[in-house]
Structures are given as structure tokens and as C-alpha cells.
Automatic annotation (TrEMBL):
Name of the protein: DUF3243 family protein
Species of the source: Paenibacillus germinis
Superkingdom in the source lineage: Bacteria
Pfam families reported for this sequence: DUF3243
Alphabetical list of InterPro entries matching this protein: DUF3243 (IPR021637), Uncharacterised_YmfJ (IPR024702), YmfJ/YflH_sf (IPR038292)
């Protein structure tokens, strides 16, 4: 997984593909946002930021309460879901 996270654009592409797959599988936006929150929790706890963008996201994540983290996860989904 570390190779996917080395380049932020690559991470966004990876996330966009997963969001697209989830949508095609019939998952609701709410379910996708919940999954994004869980992924955010995993990344914040298990993966060291490898670039400035990831570091900023981790700092925002760490500073937020649960609702703010859910909002940030939803915004990441929106960022990559341009279709």
C-alpha cells in the first residue's frame, strides 16, 4: 500500500477508482462516505504521511472531532468523484 500513497495524485486516482467501483456496485453515497471515514481512520493510525499533502490531511484529521472527520472523508470522496 505504501507505493500507492507515495504520490498524492496516484492516491486520488486510487480513491477515485474505488469510489467509482462502489457506485457501480450499487453502494449509496452514505455508505461510500462511511467507508471513506473508515479508510481515513486506518490511514491516520497506520500509515505515515509520505508527502506534504498527506501530512496536511493527517493534521486536519487529527485536529477534527468525529463529525469533522466524517466531513473531511466526504470531501475527499467529492474531490475524486467528478463523474
Amino acid at each position: 500500500m505504501a507505493t500507492v500513497l507515495k504520490v498524492f495524485d496516484k492516491w486520488k486516482e486510487f480513491l477515485a477508482e474505488r469510489v467509482s467501483q462502489a457506485g457501480h456496485a450499487g453502494m449509496s453515497e452514505e455508505t461510500i462516505s462511511k467507508l471513506a471515514f473508515q479508510i481515513g481512520e486506518f490511514l491516520a493510525n497506520k500509515v505515515d504521511p509520505e508527502n506534504e499533502q498527506e501530512r496536511v490531511l493527517k493534521e486536519l484529521w487529527d485536529a477534527g472531532d468525529e463529525q469533522e472527520k466524517r466531513t473531511l472523508a466526504g470531501l475527499m470522496v467529492k474531490l475524486v468523484d467528478k463523474g
